[in-house]
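quick one
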Amino acid sequence: MAKAKATRRTLDSYTVKPSNKIIKPGDCVLMRPSDPSKPSYVAKVERIESDGRGLNARVHVRWYYRPEESIGGRRQFHGSKEVFLSDHYDIQSADTIEGKCTVHSFKSYTKLDAVGNDDFFCRFEYNSSTGAFNPDRVAVYCKCEMPYNPDDLMVQCEGCSDWFHPACIEMNAEEAKRLDHFFCENCSSEGQKKLQNSHNTRQSDAKVETKRRRRLQANTEAKISASQAVVFLS
Ligand SMILES: [Zn+2]
Ligand SMILES: [Zn+2]
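structure w/ zinc ion:
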């Protein structure tokens, strides 16, 4: 049967069976891969259309790439739930949609109390033909000079404000979580003095508590200042 293009129409939404989740343009979705051994594809829905009878729904999508699917592959600082917004657009049958998901900004992802199966985050756009990232550089932290992976716990030095992996400062995660104060090697002698001066004031206890929580939530301010060390991505 010949399909006339003019008979296709745009839909406001599409209902995924059997969950009855309603998908609308702008939503992020998980899509079934042709190879069942692979993880679901992540995509942003741009448009939903059907034939003239309202059947054979198709979705226009913009793919998110997982680090494994990028030219440079997965790197140590990529989070397990990290995806890159690509310039790769596609049209897919709507029945490959498995369900809805959420692609958070980097900042809001690091503030989640719990990361669900359907939570992802995106901090880079990705050019699928050249493998280039935007932004093309990322701040690095710690003695190991790595970009921040939000899956990893980091502690902040109260002296220089740099962030450190517990393993890189010879600590385990439990020890790091119990820390009230942390000064890195370079800052430690000055830090001890400051601590002794403020030791007996109750107010400083309150401050320490908020600082400590902030520190353990890890770095959410990913802005790159002129003095911040960076690594270039390609
Ligand atoms: Zn490190
Ligand atoms: Zn320091």
